[in-house]
UniProtKB/TrEMBL annotation:
Stored SUPFAM superfamilies: Ubiquitin-like (SSF54236)
Protein name per Swiss-Prot or TrEMBL: Ubiquitin-like domain-containing protein
Organism: Brassica cretica
Highest classification ranks of the organism: Eukaryota, Viridiplantae, Streptophyta, Embryophyta, Tracheophyta
Domain Ubiquitin-like: 15-83
PANTHER family in alphabetical order: OS02G0597700 PROTEIN
Gene3D superfamilies the record matches: Phosphatidylinositol 3-kinase Catalytic Subunit, Chain A, domain 1
Leader sequence segment: none
Amino acid sequence: MLVQKRQESIGDDLISIRVSTFANFHDLSIEATSTFGELKMVLSLLTGLEPKQQRLLFKGKEREDDEYLHMVGVGEKDKVLLLEDPAFKEKKLLDRNNISASCLTIIV
């Protein structure tokens, strides 16, 4: 019986994906066996949004942080949609309004 040894090489399981936001997109390479949570960590460096502020959608469904890219079918040149979580967006707007309201100038 002949058995062929499988050689592990770095970068063989990298896939190129495009992550689109409302205004722009990011092309990046990531391991196919990564989770959506790990993808969020990479995107936080690119977008400035914390992972808990991000919502990732693939094939029209929001994906959980512990789901693996390859298990849900993410492959080479696929597109993932990145949205800002509406709860954090609303909180950010409220915080901005509170700051501007508390910084009123009084002229005597």
